[in-house]
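#dry-run=false #mode=assembly
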Amino acid sequence: MKNFNYLQTILASLFVFLPIFPHSNSIDFGGYTDPSLILIIIFLATGINSNRIIGLAFTIFLYLSINDYVGYADTFSKIFLFLTFFYFIRKYYWRSTINDVLMIFSFLILHSFLVFAIYRHLYNVNLIDYVNMVTIPLLYNSLISIIMLFMIKYTSWPHYPEKTFQS
Amino acid sequence: MISKRNIKRISLTLLVILFCVIFFLLNLHFIFSDFFTSNLSDVTTSKISKHYTDEALVNNKLKESLINENEELRKILKLEKESKFNLIHAQITVKSPIVLSGMGYVNKGKNDGVKEGYLVINDKGLIGKIGKVFENHSEIIFPHSPRFSTLVLVGENQISGIFKGDGVSSYVEYIPTQSKINIDDKILLSDNSGFAYTSFQIGRVEKIDSKEGFLRIKVKDLIYSSGAKFISIVKNEKL
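#status=ok
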């Protein structure tokens, strides 16, 4: 499991809190990103422990608390997919860059599809309207997830032992 | 049978194509072209002059955002002067980042005279409707939310219908099928109290369908209400 350092934890908390306040456009990418989705993906790709599950649950329920009952569909889909992916990753998944990227796309597409299925059943939503509304956020979420995954998992600050003497 | 290696190759190619599409869809190449023109066109530019150029650019951006904000506030003042509405000006302060989120919070509540059901507008169009009201803040329901509904008038004959959200987009429903409505007809705000709202256009007719004995009208030219910052709540004493 890839551990996060203090700076990454602070940045993650900012990433969760700042988009709640609209027009903090330095971090919410114009309101097209859902940090809870990105956080789920990053945790699935880097490994899960109890602290991360608590953080994730806090984020999901914080977003649900400032939303109306429409948010239940989204929350259900996130939790369901998180548990499903968690199970499949533990059983059948081997870690590689390409698999991580494919996992990101499949998670986001399945999430959109599941939310659409619920909305279609409840409110008879039109597919074209839904695709119009969801395409740009889907692209933003996937791009940001991939960038963040590479930043966190596949790059690391070089550590050299400090030299206390002159050679 | 495709081998695992080939599957990986195909998926990688598809990924690259997807990235290229995204790159051009989001107009990112313009950002890069700006970058290249500013960096490669004048190789002799010294570091000091570049520093001053960067500073000037930042100042320019800040100035631009202030001008935009100022312009938005001016438009709201103009809206108050020109319309017959009694307005309470507010700001959207909190919004859930969930993509299909249908609500947010504004910084005005009971203490400022806000009541449930008041419509919310800005100079460009309809932003939503007030939901629950608290002491110093209130809920705002956006037009695409299934909780949103309001009375509107459609077309030259001003036929009344219900403007409703379905979670993703907004439609006008419950208009009798024999009504004469054309594409591009205006859709105006209305309420049961009179004609105070009828000068306020919220969109135009995009598509007309028939559903369960009524017309169902798709609305175009609606504004992106979730992205609004400064808003005006229309006081309606009859609510």
